[in-house]
Design a protein that fits this description.
With about 200 residues, this protein is mainly alpha-helical. Helices cover about 75% and strands about 5% of the residues. It has two domains: about 80 residues, no CATH class; about 100 residues.
Length: about 200
């Protein structure tokens, strides 16, 4: 659920980008809708609204949500003001590298690696597994940032947007699935579910 909510601003961003540019008049005020700069405006507004609502409901945002929100504000505003997509193209690489820095720093500061903070409630793995996973995520974020940078400045604008919205999601999904064999034996099963399953097996 959390991942879906975090993804809402990007879906809105892609939807507005895909619309043919047109001028909309509301109450005598005219504004252009569609295209990359309009999409940046909607990404900014949707991010502030989405994370603002999350903050009001949960009374907090996690550090990764704060980083994402701040990055949207810092990179969308100059994109909109200066009509230059280069600002927005740097957002994904820098955010990924900041994530890598956070994961790296968690090795030395705090009681747990960052990945354990994220998944420790569902996976009861030993410390060496968490440290190994944390290192893997550091490398992943560094590489993903580099890939985003290459895509942004070498491919067409449409290809960049499609990768930004869908490519990152697919790569991260595949990356997470690839870790399941390592974590499967440590995933905690609810005791009631385990008992019902064992009872079912005995009755067969």
């Amino acid at each position: 659920m959390k991942q879906f909510i975090d993804y809402i601003p990007l879906v809105i961003f892609f939807t507005i980008f895909a619309i043919d540019e047109r001028t909309v008049s509301i109450g005598g005020f005219e504004h252009s809708i569609g295209g990359i700069f309009s999409a940046a405006e909607f990404l900014l507004a949707a991010s502030i609204l989405t994370y603002g609502c999350l903050f009001l409901v949960n009374r907090r945002l996690d550090k990764f949500q704060w980083i994402t929100l701040c990055a949207v504000v810092l990179f969308c505003i100059p994109t909109i003001i200066f009509r230059n997509t280069d600002f927005l193209k740097w957002k994904a690489p820098i955010v990924n590298w900041i994530f890598a820095t956070v994961f790296f720093g968690s090795r030395y500061f705090g009681s747990k690696p960052a990945i354990e903070h994220m998944m420790g409630h569902a996976v009861n793995a030993p410390k060496e597994v968490w440290r190994r996973l944390n290192n893997i995520w550091i490398v992943y974020f560094i590489i993903l940032g580099a890939v985003n940078l290459i895509v942004a400045f070498t491919l067409s604008e449409r290809a960049w947007i499609q990768f930004k919205v869908f490519g990152n999601l697919i790569l991260t999904f595949i990356f997470v699935i690839g870790q399941m064999p390592l974590l499967a034996k440590y995933i905690e099963v609810d005791e009631e579910d385990a008992e019902s399953k064992s009872t079912g097996k005995e009755s067969v």
